[in-house]
Every structure is written in structure tokens, then in C-alpha cells.
Design goal:
4 copies of one chain form a homotetramer. Chain A is an alpha+beta fold. The first copy, chain A, has helices spanning 42-59, 140-149; strands at 15-17, 20-26, 71-82, 91-101, 105-114, 117-130. Chain B binds chain D through residues 29-30, 32-37, 39, 41, 87-88, and chain D through 29-30, 32-37, 39, 41, 87-88.
């Protein structure tokens, strides 16, 4: 093992198909609590990882808004329904669709699956902010990519 | 400094008055993110700390349900509104009221304040579970304590 | 419950006596993992909370270096020995002494206790940085406070 | 998007080659702090994720000790050197080798890279425990797999 070796693999970015982004992850010790299941706040981390990777995929080949740090989506509201618990070593998948896109905000629907089983559902309202933390328009290229690839009608 | 010295101080458990539990905390590096503010999932940690301390206070002198681990309250649903961000070193207060108590579940309303300013509001639906993770009745002593001390009408 | 009420209580800052800072905390669900005990990385959070509160206490009445954000101590190295595990609801105490202070760096010794029992020992090497992340001299007032109040010989 | 669709992708498990396990990850908001860099405790999470995936790879086709939860490796000691910080969106790689294997314990060396740059080095001492948390022998199949595939001499 020596420095200089190129990175052998890339992090899981998930895939976009059927109008949704699908992001896989495994449950590690850090995610669980003494109840033996995933701690309730950590699903919000899973959801944010999935949204980040979705943005990286959507922005590939376009002006890089989120990827470059020019803009960021801040969560203004979220509703979380916990249907069933996940456990250590489970392989989960976060499926994300953007249900509504407006000038400077959007709403997303995210579901955490284990196989076919829905474990957690999130409705997330997000505001687009510039580097100063002020509301900013969602760049057109990104908005088009969202609407054509990760919306229910796409 | 040597072992054998009794613990000098107790963790902040907050106080119950005016029908609400009030729990103070400071924002540390671990709570913040690269945006310079508290990471959105961490407010759920703050809220759970506050609920835990409230239960410890309510159970003092009664049969110890949550404190002893006989029962636990699992979050089934939460709605979170992010009104304004908190920053490193801020001193915050989580105020908790239980808006509804049923046989084996209850709803709570929690607000995170910085001084007079509301930063985050949470509506939390919780189920009472026994050691096996099955639904369990909220012990009467605890239910009475909740209704008489941490409900809007109390 | 209404806005406008002053904060009822302050977070636990711990106390300084006998040459050490003593910081109390309770173990919450967020701190534990599926093994039923505190997750190993989380002791580093506890240790950093304690160091932060120690700095706030030491700086009270002096030029506020860490408190105001002018300087920060970045951990360059830490050694952690896990002697015994902590569990949900345990009340712990982090005891911190600064074993060596140099111009722009210092070494600390931190122990996490449950009652008289040592659970985790940390040796932490820290560098003092300015707002730009460059090495900075530890302000004299702070250095004097550290040496007179939280050093083994104090 | 509908339930019933098989999981499209698997989490990144990394690869084993040249006597080391290599695990890729991206830095998300949850990993960073208000200093704009990865919070120091979170590298211990990265390291544990990498060790977990390494065990899953090593156990594939053998008796499943860690994977099935029969045994677990508890960290008894770790030394962490922070050489350079990682930032939001960085792609990192954790490289893990097991430097020494004994009957019921082992030592690992882990380095977090960004490209060719070493950011953090960890030396980790681990004890093998059974389901009751008591010391247990490392299963022979696993021990052989470790020594032949993830040791410096392999």
C-alpha cells in the first residue's frame, strides 16, 4: 500500500431512473442506538446524502451549482413518518423525487426502503440559497434536469 | 484530581414550570456543519435530550418507567419547521409540552428558542413501547404527571 | 409558555477545582449504538464539549479568544484508551487537565468517569489557530489562566 | 417509482488488493463542522465503516462471524494523527491493513487519503467479543482471510 495509487473506486452515487433517484447505503454502528435500531434523527442524514448525490448526478455536464458550492438547498420544513425500524448491517435504499419546483424553492418526497418494505417517508421543503445564505433562483439547467429526470411525471 | 471524588455537578435537566419543560443547551462544534450553522438533523437530537430529561423529572418519586428502561417512547412521526438557524456557541432552550396523551401514545410540541426567538418547531408523535418493542400503556403515575405538569392546560 | 420569558437555566459548564475542569453529562440514545453502549467516536464529542466549556470558564473576565471565535484549538493528535463501556442514562463526568502549554499549542489529559470508575482516557494534542486557520500564539491571559487553574501543578 | 423494484445498486464496499482494503466515501454536510472541515470525531466513523465493509468482504464464502453478529470487534485503543483537513464534497479513501492478529485481538492501521494526500492516520487496537460481550477467539477462517489478504506481508 503506498500513496500515489489512484483511487480504486468511487462512492455510491446511486442511479436515476423511472423519475427517481435511488441511493443505496448500509447501516453501520454509528447509525444505530441502544434500542438496536437506527436512531430517528439519522434518517435525515441518509436523506441529505441521497439529495446531495442526486444533485451531483443532475449537475454532471451542466453549470455546477450545488457541486461547486455556489448554491445550496436548505431544508425549511420536513415531515417524517417512521413506519418500521432498520437494523445494523441492513442494506437500505433512499428513493428521491422532486414533487414541485418553484423559482427559489422545491419540495421533495423521499422514502427509505429495505427491499420492498417502506421504512421511513419524508416530505422535505427546501429553499435555494446563494453563498451569502440569501434566497437564490434555482439555475435553469438544474431546474430542467430536475423536472425531466427526477419528477413524478418524468 | 483523583478517583474517589464525588461527582461535583449534575447534567442540566432543565425545569418544569408554566406547563412546559425547559431544557438549556449550548451549540458545540459537533452540532454544526460547513454552512456555519446547526445541522438540520441535530435538532432532533436536542429534542430527544429534552424529552428524556423531562421524563426523568416527571418520574422522580414515581414508578420509574422510562428511567428504568421498562418503557420507551418511540417517535412515529415528526414535523419540523426550521425558522432561523443557530450558530456555534449559541445557548438554546428546548421547551416541551405534551399536547395529547392517549393510552399508549402521546403527542408533543417542542420549540427551540434562542432567547425570545423561535428557531425550530417540532410536532412529535410518540408510541409507548415495552422492553420487547411492543405497544404498552403509559403508566398511570407518569400519565398523571404529564397531564398535570407539562400539558398546555396545566 | 410564551416567548419573552428569560432563559430559565444555563447549560452545565462544569466547575474548575483542584487543577482540573469537571464537566457532567448524561448518556442519551444519540450517544449509544446497537451494542447497547456509547459509540466509540462519541467520547471525542464529550471531550470536546468539556474543553469548550473549560475555555469559556477560563476566559470569563479576560479577552475572549475562543469564546469570541478569534482563536480555536484544533486537535492534531489524540490517543484514546477505552477501559470500560458507558450505557444509556449513565451520568458521566469528563475531567480535563492541561499537561503542557507552549507558544501555539498545548497537550491535555482527559478522563471520562462514571462515579469513581475510569471509563475512557484521552491524551489530546492541540494547535492554536487564528480565524484564517493559521498557527497563532495562545493569548497570554488565557495561557496564564490555564496554567494557574487547570494544570497538574495548580 | 414503485415498491417491488429490486435494489438497483449496492453500497460501496471497497476492494481488497495489495494487502489492503480500500474504502471510498464522500464528505457530506453531516460530516463537517462550523470550521468548514470534517469534525475530528467523524474520522472514527469513517474508519469503522471501512473495517465493517472489509469484514463483510473477508467473510464472503466463509462462516459469517461479524456479518451475522456472532462476534464483534470492539476498539480498545486508538491513536489518531490529523495531518490535513478534509472539506465538504471531498472524495476520500480509507485504506486498512491489519498489522497484527492474535487469538482474540488484532491491531489495524488505517489511513484516510484524498487522492495521494494522507489526511489522517489511525492505529486501532481491537478485541474480539462474542454476543455476551466476552472475549472470543477470532474464527480461524476469518483469521486466515485477514492474514492472507489484508496484512502488510500479504
Amino acid at each position: 500500500m503506498h500513496a500515489g495509487t489512484p483511487l480504486s473506486t468511487a462512492p455510491a452515487r446511486g442511479v436515476i431512473n423511472g423519475g427517481a433517484h435511488r441511493y443505496p447505503l448500509r447501516v453501520y454502528y454509528e447509525d444505530t442506538d441502544a434500542g438496536g435500531i437506527v436512531y430517528y434523527a439519522n434518517y435525515l442524514k441518509f436523506a441529505e446524502r441521497a439529495r446531495t448525490e442526486m444533485m451531483h448526478l443532475l449537475e454532471a455536464g451542466y453549470a455546477e451549482g450545488v457541486t461547486s458550492g455556489e448554491i445550496a438547498f436548505a431544508v425549511r420544513r420536513c415531515e417524517v413518518d417512521y413506519l418500521a425500524p432498520a437494523s445494523l448491517n441492513d442494506v437500505l435504499e433512499v428513493r428521491t423525487t422532486i414533487s414541485q419546483t418553484r423559482g427559489a424553492s422545491m419540495n421533495g418526497h423521499q422514502t427509505v426502503y429495505r427491499g420492498d418494505e417502506e421504512l421511513v417517508r419524508l416530505e422535505v421543503g427546501m429553499a435555494c440559497l446563494n453563498r451569502d445564505g440569501c434566497p437564490a433562483r434555482i439555475p435553469n439547467d438544474l431546474k430542467n434536469a430536475i423536472q425531466s429526470r427526477t419528477s413524478p411525471s418524468s
